[in-house]
User: What shape does this take?
Amino acid sequence: MNSFIFAVGGFASAYYWSSTEYNNNNAWKQNFDNGNQNNNNKNNTNYVRAVRDFKQTIFSENLSASAKALIGFLS
Assistant: This one.
């Protein structure tokens, strides 16, 4: 099980749509509870979750030097 989901919270034990298409008729789906990932017809129903994309250049401007060093170390 992915322990990170508890830090983010609120994930159902179900599949969530990815924004990535598999082909014209299918898109990827992900189950955060058990890690399964596969493609599914776009006519089927799965959960969605809004996410926000942070650009590292904007985000990193507000970080301390030690936080920037840690991010560089982990990358």
